[in-house]
From TrEMBL:
Membrane-spanning residues: none
Active-site residue list: Y135 (proton donor/acceptor), K164 (schiff-base intermediate with substrate)
Protein name stated in the entry: 4-hydroxy-tetrahydrodipicolinate synthase
Enzyme Commission numbers on file: 4.3.3.7
Family: Belongs to the DapA family.
HAMAP family: DapA
Binding site for pyruvate: T47, I206
Native source species: Mesonia mobilis
Site (Part of a proton relay during catalysis): T46, Y109
Pathway: Amino-acid biosynthesis; L-lysine biosynthesis via DAP pathway; (S)-tetrahydrodipicolinate from L-aspartate: step 3/4
Length: 292
């Protein structure tokens, strides 16, 4: 699945002051990604504040991105949860006509065993007509997908094509790369570890920082895939301070502050999230001025 090698972005959902979806800003953000080297877009992931959107708003976000993208970039739709039956039902009933894959997070809160995780994704695989990318993010789910479980799923189900690995553990990432089939995509879900993972054999990234600095970050990933290590690390160290900044007060408050500075969208989020503080916004603004 070469279309998912490189830089994907987990797109935000921009809001107006009244916290309604800002459709025009969302269109502008899609254009910004297309114009600056991004390889694919993830729709309605955690960064898109999926949990705070109602059904109609989710459909609005989906259709706005699909129409503005105009089939130019591959699209991945986030469908996951901790109710296996409900996830499978959504996969079967969702309109997936314009999407190229599903990104499905490991069940959160309930803390399943490794066998439970395996059985969950077995059902997801059987329900899906599109390729499935697993998503391991133990900082949010409170359970970790082990390399052995990932390898088992990769070997047992042809339509499970990759994993967004966001445990922040480089040793675990290398174990996943070494234990899974050669064509299985181990995709970084940690912006700071993207380049080391790519150089270790990873397939790229699904990124937050890249949607704010798409040209620079996608160039870094391509240099890494081409094994132009020194040039890639120059960009890594240029961008690294911004990675710390955008996650300092949680995601997506930080990246929305980047977009506000760039004039692409306002920084409004929905409760229980809150906007970045004035202090953080000032630091982000100064970084954007420096890197432009």
């Amino acid at each position: 699945m070469k279309k998912f090698v490189g830089t994907g972005v987990a797109l935000i959902t921009p809001f107006k002051e009244d916290r309604s979806v800002d459709v025009e800003a969302l269109k502008e953000l899609v254009r910004f990604q297309k114009q600056n080297g991004i390889n694919y877009i993830v729709v309605l992931g955690t960064t898109g504040e999926y949990a705070t959107l109602n059904k109609n708003e989710r459909e609005l976000v989906k259709q706005t991105i699909v129409e503005e993208n105009n089939a130019e970039l591959p699209l991945v739709l986030g469908i996951g949860g901790n109710n296996t039956q409900a996830v499978c039902e959504q996969i079967k009933t969702e309109n997936l006509e314009s999407f190229d894959a599903i990104l499905s997070v490991s069940p959160y809160y309930v803390k399943p065993t490794q066998e439970g995780i395996y059985q969950h994704f077995k059902k997801v695989s059987q329900a899906a007509t599109l390729p499935v990318i697993l998503y391991n993010v133990p900082g949010r789910t409170s359970s970790n997908m082990s390399p052995a479980t990932v390898a088992r799923l990769a070997n047992d189900f042809e339509n499970i094509i990759g994993i967004k690995e966001a445990a922040g553990n480089m040793v675990q990432a290398m174990e996943m790369i070494s234990q899974t089939p050669e064509d299985f995509l181990v995709i970084s879900g940690d912006d700071m570890l993207t380049l080391p993972m790519v150089l270790a054999g990873g397939a790229g990234v699904i990124s937050v920082i890249a949607e704010g600095f798409p040209k620079q970050f996608s160039e870094m990933v391509q240099l890494g895939l081409s094994r132009e290590v020194d040039e890639a690390y120059k960009i890594h160290y240029q961008i690294a301070p911004a990675i710390d900044l955008i996650f300092e007060e949680g995601n997506p408050a930080g990246i929305k502050a980047v977009f506000k500075k760039l004039g692409l969208a306002e920084d409004y989020v929905r409760l229980p999230l809150v906007e970045a503080t004035e202090n953080l916004s000032a630091k982000i603004s100064a970084f954007v001025d420096k890197i432009k």
